[in-house]
Amino acid sequence: MIPLSWYLILAAALFCIGMYGVLGRRNAIAILMGIELMLNAVNINLVAFWRYLSPQVIGGQVFTIIVFAVAASEAAVGLALIISIYRQRSTVIAEEVDLMKW
Amino acid sequence: MSTELLVWLIPLPPLLAFGLIILRAHRSNRVSTGLAVGAMVLSWAMGLVVFGQAVATEHLGDHPIASSIPWLPLGPDVLEMGVLIDPLSAITLFFVVWTCLAIFVYSIGYHNFGKARDAHDKPGLPPHAGGIDPLYARFFAFISLFAFGMLTLVVADNLLLLFIGWEIMGLCSYLLIGFWFGKDSAKKAMVKAFMTTRVGDVFMLLGIAALYISTGTLSFSEILRNPETLHHLAETPAFLGLSMAGLIGLLLFAGTVGKSAQFPLHVWLPDAMEGPTPVSAMIHAATMVSAGIYLILRFFPLLSAGWHPGEPLTTTMVVIAAIGAFTALFASTIAVAQNDIKRVLAYSTISQLGYMVAAVGVGAFIAAAFHLVTHAFFKALLFLGSGSVIHGMEHGAHASHDHVDPQDMMNMGGLRRKMPWTFWTFLIGGLALSGFPLITAGFWSKDEILASAYGGNQPVVFGVLALAALLTAFYTARQIGLTFLGEPRSDAAEHAHESSRVMLAPLVVLSIFSIAAGWAGIKGDFPFIGGSIPNWVEEFLAGALVEHPAEIGFTFPPLLTSLVVALGGLGIGWLVYRRIPRGGTDPLVRWLGPVHRILRNKYYFDELYGFLFVRPAYWFAETFTYAWVDRRVIDGILHAVGRASLRLGGWLRRAIDVPVVNGFGDWVGESTKSAGRTFRVIQSGRVQAYLAAALLFTGLLLSFLLLVRP
């Protein structure tokens, strides 16, 4: 059986890739995709810990399902916002959306 | 209704009328007249009922009609206010209500009630064509207040209430003398009257204070009917050899000198003739000047404390007798040389008041009170008669367009045919004033004063008064001769006409009293007729004193003297003045020469007082009070305070407000702004920068929690 640490390393790698996407990419859609990756890294952790540490309670699965739902709605709202910004300003580059700057 | 309550009510109707007229009724002359005269009729009726009760009471002096209420608690004592009707106030009340009522009724006619208002008449000036006076209602309000003051004074049972009535009358005389305030002379006269009487009133107030300190009460009965108090006061030395009683007596007498226009404060009374004639009658005959005599009669037991009939007079009494006798003679000499019909009467009043004062001074209490009563009647009659003459002359002047002075007797003459009623009543008054023997009231009272002075061994007073009586008879004959006898000396006099009935009725009533009032006081031992009428006045008034005065037996010298002076004066006057032709001059001018000029100018007393008191007062007011005290000192202090405040304010602003308060406020604002400027660079608006910062700090916090703390 594959040890738990392998799953954790995979999840950490996936989280770091997502974080790079969030901090490093300029395109708002790419940032949104990075966020999805980070959420899924958390999901891997949740499922892995459930399977290895407490398989008799289903808390890990339930949390994962909730994260899915949140991620899906977040993506829907985020994409709608991005489309709206694009219609207003013809750009999806995060740095150029700086109305709130001093 | 009990008599005590009735006495309380006597002064109130005129006060009520005054208030109602001033506040409500002054727009309607008819209502104002009705209120004032109605109120006076009410007071008159109550006064007569009370007088009747007083006469019917046996031993009224010992059991007076009195009631009082505690009015003002003063520490352990209580000041009582109350009313008192003893023989003196009863008899005073009698003539006051009669003369007041006569004057009220007369005023209706005098101020031309019922005539239309002339469009040319201005308020504050006499109407010049027989129209109703523009301030008609105001006149009735003022005389109502005046009557209230006098009635209060008469029924008062203590000196304080008396003084209140006294001062109310002082105010009213000021207002009434200046009733025609459009005339400059009236304005001056009102101030002069007020200021001059004030001099006496200040001394009187001192006397009241001294009396209260010495005895602890101001009630008449407690002081004056208490021989122990009087004896104590007479034995307490004050200063300059005067006893306390003498000192208080002199101070109170000073009030009389002011109010009753005795020398040296006599100057206001002739000028007071600027007021309407009913006012002159009211102030100079019926009420105000009588109040001064009433005061010294009331305080006769105090004034004469330590003196017994037959002994030499005390210092106080000598002063009173001297001033009275001197005034009597002095004023009658001036009256001889006056041409204004009212001024003659004014000086005659001063002179007659001097008679009464002299009588009090020589201890003749009853004679003085008797003369007070008879004088009030015949002098009111003479004043109202002179008003009727002036009224007729004004009408004549208006009808004939001969605008002469309607009060100057040299413009009159022959009025007996034009104004018969006025003539006969004036003649009765004049004869009473001169003391025409047997039939007039003035004879009996004047004779009694002369007899008292003679019987009291005061030959100087007797001689002076006899001389004054001679002059009185002379100027009265002169006045009647110039006014009514001979031929008219101006067109105005030719067109004069008799006054209305409402003016004549009071004259008739008063002339009845001017004759009949004397019969009540005929001495029992008078030759032939004595005893046929009981000497009611003496019996009644004697009860006012604890020690009944010794009766002065009848002697012939004073009777002969008064007969000679009265008939002689009248005879000489009649011979000289019965027919002065038109354009003629007064023969006295030729006979007396420069003396006449001095007399006509009243011994230059107005000029003397002007030089001694009025001009220094003006100088003092202008140079010292205004220019120095007011402008320099007070204004200087105010300006200095103002400048110092400005300077202090400037310093406070520079030292505290600007640097500290403003500085702190500005610093807070500026530092907030610069902090904002410094930290705004953080807000870049780049989401990823915020996230990076959040990540960094979360990492730091996490490292701290996991690595450093445990």
How are the elements arranged and paired?
The complex is a heterodimer of chains A (102) and B (710).
Chain A lengths: L3 H21 L3 H26 L5 H31 L13
Helix pairs in contact in A: 1-2, 2-3
Chain B lengths: L2 H7 L2 H12 L5 H28 L8 E10 L2 E9 L1 H24 L25 H20 L3 H19 L6 H32 L4 H5 L2 H9 L8 H16 L8 H4 L5 H10 L1 H11 L1 H4 L11 H22 L4 H21 L3 H36 L14 H4 L1 H15 L6 H15 L3 H26 L6 H4 L6 H16 L19 H7 L13 H22 L9 H6 L1 H7 L4 H75 L7 H22 L2
Antiparallel strand pairs in B: 1-2
Helix pairs in contact in B: 1-3, 2-3, 2-5, 3-4, 3-5, 4-5, 4-12, 4-17, 4-23, 5-6, 6-7, 7-10, 10-13, 10-15, 12-17, 13-16, 13-17, 15-16, 15-21, 16-17, 16-21, 17-19, 17-20, 17-23, 17-24, 19-21, 19-23, 20-21, 20-25, 21-25
Keywords:
heterodimer; A: 102 residues; mainly alpha; elongated; B: mainly alpha; two-stranded antiparallel ribbon; 29 helices; 2 strands
Q: How many beta strands in the DSSP annotation of chain B?
A: 2
**Rg over alpha carbons of chain A:** 17 Å
Q: What composes the largest sheet of chain A?
A: none
Tell me the quaternary state: heterodimer
The sequence of SSEs of chain A as H and E is: HHH
Widest sheet: strand ordering of chain B: 1-2
Mean pLDDT across all amino acids of chain A: 90
Largest interface: A-B, 12 and 11 residues
pLDDT < 50 stretches of chain B: none
Quick one: how many beta strands of chain A? 0
Q: What is the molecular shape of chain A?
A: elongated
- The SS-based structural class of chain B is mainly alpha
Strand content of chain A: under 5%
Beta-strand level of the residues of chain B, as a percent range?
under 5%
Rg from Cα of chain B: 37 Å
- Amino- and carboxy-terminal Cα gap of chain A: 56 Å
Give a short account of the largest sheet of chain B: 2 strands, antiparallel
Average pLDDT level of chain B: 86
End-to-end span of chain B in angstroms? 113 Å
